[in-house]
Amino acid sequence: MSKCGCDAVGGHVLMTPRLHPTPRPSSLSLPWKKLRSKTRLKITVADATGNSRGSFTWALNQTVGGLLLPRRESCEEKVRSKKRVFFLDVNPLCYTGSTPSLHSFGHWVSLFFQQVSLSDPVIAVIDGERCNEYRQKLLPSYKAHRRKFSKQLPSQRFSSVSAGRSRQVVRDVLRKCNVPVLKIEGCEADDVVATLVGQVLQRGYRVVIASPDKDFKQLISEEVQIVMPMPEFGRWSFYTLKHYIAQYNCDPCSDLSLRCIMGDEVDGVPGIQHVAPGFGRKTALKLLKKHGSLENLLNAAAVRTVGRQYAQNALTKYADFLRRNYEILSLRRDVDVQLEEEWLFDRDSRNDSVVLSNFFKLLGETQKLTNQNTSHSSDG
C-alpha cells in the first residue's frame, strides 16, 4: 500500500502537478481565486542518474486560505488496497432451489472463477459430518428439516465414469482448480469460515465470502464483504456494509440480536413471540435501538424496567431462552482450524478451463445415460 510521501535515498523526487493552479500570492490575507477542492500531484521518483524509479499520486485538499495539504487516505481506500481472500461456501451452490444439482455447482463455480475471484486466493469450505450436533443439543429443532447433500444424487449417478459420490466430485473439481477444500468433522462450514476470517484479517488481508447464506451477514464490516449468487440475474453480486445498513438500517450486531429475539423459522429457531404473545418486531427494534445489543438489553432488564410491562416480563422470564437463541444463531469463532500460509497464495487458474470443461462433459454423458435408462425402463 503506497503512502503519501516517499523516501528516495540517494535519489531525487520530481513532483509534476496534474493541475496548474493560479500562482499563490505572497500574502495569504490577499484575495485570490480558489482552486478546486481536490488536486492531485503525480510524484515521480528518480535515482541519482535521473532514471525514473516509478511514480505515485499524492492527493491534496484545499484548506482555509487556499493552502493545499495532503489528504489523508479514507478508510475505504485503505481497505480497497488490501489483497482479497475469498471463502467459498460450497454446499448451497450444489442446489437449484431445494433440489440437489451438480449442474448448479458447475455453473456458479465457473462464473465465480471467471468473473469474481480471478487469481485471488480461494478457500473452499464444506459442512463436516454431524455438523449440526452442537446446536441440536441446545435445540433439537435446529435445522431438523433442512436439506442434506446426498452422497449420490439420484438423477446423476457416476458408477462407471467418475469417483462415485457427488461430494468427492465437487472436491476433485475444486482441488484441480487449485482451491484448498476444508471439511472439519462436527462443524458447520459457517463456523469454520467465521473462525478463519478472524485469522485472515489479522494477517492484514480483506475477506470476501461467496455464499447466499444470510448467517454470514453478521460478519460484514469494512473489511468483510459477501458476494452472493443471484439466479434471477445469472451472476454473482457483491453485498457490502453499505448495502447492509441501507437494507436493515442497523449494524450487523443489532441485526443478529433482532434475529435472536424474533427467531429464525428457516433454521427452526423459535422467537420470543411464540412464548410471549404481543412482543413483536417493533418492540424489539425499539429496545435494541436504545440498548444496542441483546446482552445489554437483558442485563438492563435484570436491574430496571426497560419498556412496557409485558416486554419487561418477557425479557426477565425468557432471558435464558434468548441467550440460547444467541448461542445457536451466532457463528462460532473457536473452531480448531489454523490458517495455512499457502492458502493465501495467488490461485493458479490455468487449469480452470480444462477442468470445468471435463466436468460439464461428464455431466452431459451422465445425463444422456440416465435418459437412456429411463427410456428403457418405460419401454419395459
Describe the structure.
- The chain has 380 residues and is of the alpha/beta class.
- It has 3 domains: 12-72, no CATH class; 80-249, 5'-nuclease (Rossmann fold, 3-Layer(aba) Sandwich), CATH 3.40.50; 254-329, Orthogonal Bundle (DNA polymerase, domain 1), CATH 1.10.150.20.
- Helices cover 37% and strands 17% of the residues.
- The chain has helices at residues 75-80, 102-117, 133-138, 166-176, 189-202, 241-248, 252-262, 281-291, 294-301, 309-317, 319-329, 352-379, and strands spanning 12-17, 38-46, 52-62, 68-70, 84-89, 95-96, 99-100, 122-126, 181-183, 206-210, 224-230, 235-239.
- The strands form 3 sheets. A 6-stranded mixed β-sheet has the order 9-8-5-10-11-12, sandwiched between helices. Strands 1-2-3-4 form a 4-stranded antiparallel β-sheet, with no helix packed on it.
- Strand 3 and strand 4 (68-70) form a beta hairpin.
- Helix 2 (102-117) runs antiparallel to helix 12 (352-379), helix 7 (252-262) runs antiparallel to helix 8 and helix 7 (252-262) crosses helix 11.
- The radius of gyration is 28 Å and the shape is globular.
- The termini are far apart.
- GO terms for molecular function: 5'-3' exonuclease activity; 5'-flap endonuclease activity; DNA binding.
- Keywords: Hydrolase, Nuclease.
- Residues 83-347 form the 5'-3' exonuclease domain.
- Pfam families: 5_3_exonuc (PF01367), 5_3_exonuc_N (PF02739).
- This is 5'-3' exonuclease domain-containing protein.
